# Entry
Amino acid sequence: MGDTPFLSVRNLTRHFGPGVLSRGPVVRAVEDVSFDVPRGQVVGLVGESGSGKTTIGRAILRLIEPTSGRVTLDGVDLGALSPRGLRAARARMQYIFQDPFASLSPRMTIGQILTEGLSIQRIGTRADRAARARAALAAVDLPEDAFDRYAHEFSGGQRQRIGIARALALEPALIVADEPVSALDVSIQAQVINLLRDLQLRLGLTMLFISHDLAVVEYVCDTVIVLYLGRIMEIAPAATLYSSPRHPYTRALLSAIPEPVPGRQGSRQILTGDIPSPANPPSGCVFRTRCPVAREACARVVPPLEEVGPDHRSACLFNGTPA
# Structure
């Protein structure tokens, strides 16, 4: 995954609750997650709802504080930064939200939305900030008059382009894209995905791409990380993961991708039951309660993430072999 990672995540853990005035279980949203993102590459986080994808993305940018762990960006420990230092560092890190409408203020013009971050970072004059905002709009193929309009005047796809432009205006080195097309109509998802991929390649962006859609992830990402109940099940280059998955959870997810040619759908591996609650995860391997190859040892041992091939690691005691 590269000799010198631009983004390095080590033993990231995030637990929620109980609150000061409440008595409830601790929700283990993310548990001991480690991975690297090389400069200029796209790494995908995939998994079912509740797997911890968004929590990881927000904890990396310290939009929520990790319970423990270390995150470094270009050698800088983000957890050790003062509020002022973190604000400066955030000029290099931007977030693209899942819901483009909810993330855009209805009371601000698009120009105000795009220049807000530049103003906070005290970048340039007012004219400089407006120029950078207009350039960002052009980069996402929106007309110049969008600058003076409001979010409700645009379609869903256009609003997501505005969200992308807002991230680009600060010229970041890292973008966390959190389900950036899941709220869009299927007919325009491909347009936005192609735009993101084109911008990433043209600008040399490093990107963490969060999605539950494995078909989209295969197209966009260089490396894929498969998550289940806050833990990493498998990491591999995209081509390797899709051709030679080793973890039974990965195999089940891949088998659910629709085959574009009728009659060519391979054997489906249907997962039974629901994903357990992160407030009460299973002992041992957290996937064992739904795993088709689980054995007695899986209830006792937390499987380590071990090398199973070049840049390919899997957290399964038996690497998905039949019982």
